[in-house]
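sanity check both lines:
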Amino acid sequence: MRIAVVTDIHGNRHAMFAVLADLRRVGVDEVVFGGDAALFGSRPRECWERVLDLGWRLVQGNTDRYIATLGPRFAAIGKSTNTPPGHMPTNVAWAAARLGPALVREMGAMPRQVRIESPAGTLLVVHGSPGDDETGWSRHDDEETVAQVIGPTEAAAVVSGHTHTAMIRHAGRVLAVNCGAVGRSHDGQPGLATYAVLDDAGGRWSAELRRVAYDYRGAYADLMALGVPLTDAFASTLLTGIAPA
């Protein structure tokens, strides 16, 4: 069984479509979306609608949760104070307005994890870590740190996104995989959309990280043309592949 895990699209249509083309070439039995479909990108609606149309199994990411649950709170705060809106509330409102109420509700209905059973053991897909969509692990973390972040689990493999940095570690008996990010990679390699393919052949899970070239300058131009309310640091991530300060 071959399972692709695709995370952190962040409204980047250019990157998402490049990954879809690569998935057709690679061939997998199932795709799991690991969260963060829309926020901080120029095409939130197109990306989220496409994920839903594809019928992938879904995991809610922290920014999906922000749009679904914090958006109304941000709007209420904005109406009740004269304080200029901050970066996060402004972008949540911008994305939610483009998604519309029905798609926002779909985002709010996503589960927080997906489990796939196999003779190789359970494959657990989360956004950040089991039980916490805002704490993850990255390529700079050693095996001990990754094991601490994951915590006790009966899963044979745990797959996540969130930190936008791709890595594969054996944390004790657990295969830990961070898929990186499709739409906003922080691996210092601009223009490469990253996802993971897992395989249970031979009675144990193995993983491959796939890096797919896309038109990142076109994606950046989209941000500018459509007036996505990002700070310069967030927007330039597409050009540098470096996390915003």
